[in-house]
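ok trying this again, last paste got cut off
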Amino acid sequence: MREEGGIFMSKKGQLTYRTVNDFLEAKMTRCEAAEILGIKERSVTRIARRIEAKGFLATVHGNRGQIPWNKSLEAKKKTVMELVESKYFDFNMTVITLSAGKIRLTIWIHH
């Protein structure tokens, strides 16, 4: 993952890179690498191909550092809460939830 000042990897990612890199340099067999990493031999080959193509970033998940697609934006949450407090203050929770059509609204209101 790219952070200010560098790229950070987990210990597991570092171990994976070093082990598969040793496999690529013929310092160990595919079977030995699989045993060290606790994965199948086929996965070692798959990871090795990715490392050859992308380098050490191949061991980091592709979605790392991205915002989840289902994350609620604070501005949207604030707008909804203002509506609930001003316009729908006398509605009960069931009616508000059914009106909005979202379960998340109930979670926001209770917090």
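PB: full thing came through this time. The mean pLDDT is 78.
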